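Quick one: structure tokens for this chain, please?
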Amino acid sequence: MDFASGNALVTALLVGVLLVLVVARQLTDRPATPQRAMLVPLVLTVLGVLTLLRAHPPVTAAGLALTAAEVLLVVGLGVLRGRSVRLFVRDGVLHRRGGAVTLALWVLTIGLRVGLGLLAVRLGAGALASATLLASLGLSLLVQGRVLRVRIAAAAGVDGAGSPRARIGG
């Protein structure tokens, strides 16, 4: 499938499926393994940039302003989601699980993205907003993953006696 084809409906459907999978995974209790956490966000970001470059959407002042606002929002919400994931130790292994706050932040992220997209269409910048969808999701996940990786590293550090608090992963 050519993600950079500019077909907004296909891209939106793909992003919808990916969001369901990503959110479901984040709400599931699992060992905290930061190594793979960055692969999907990196792929989405690269595909998003390729989509933007191949789509050649018209760039307007309104489009640039909305894109800047979107970047600030998805970065901020990525930080908040990364902070909302609960880290805990079970059987000596560090685990992670998102909860109601993580889910609420995802709903807010999606709602704001949809709202900005609708506003962009109204202001004549819909093509640019559509072309940045994958990059926006990837960036938000990259930031969330980075925040979570820092937290995992800190949680798996050493306690006051010099012993590891938990093993990372299973």
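The radius of gyration is 18 Å.
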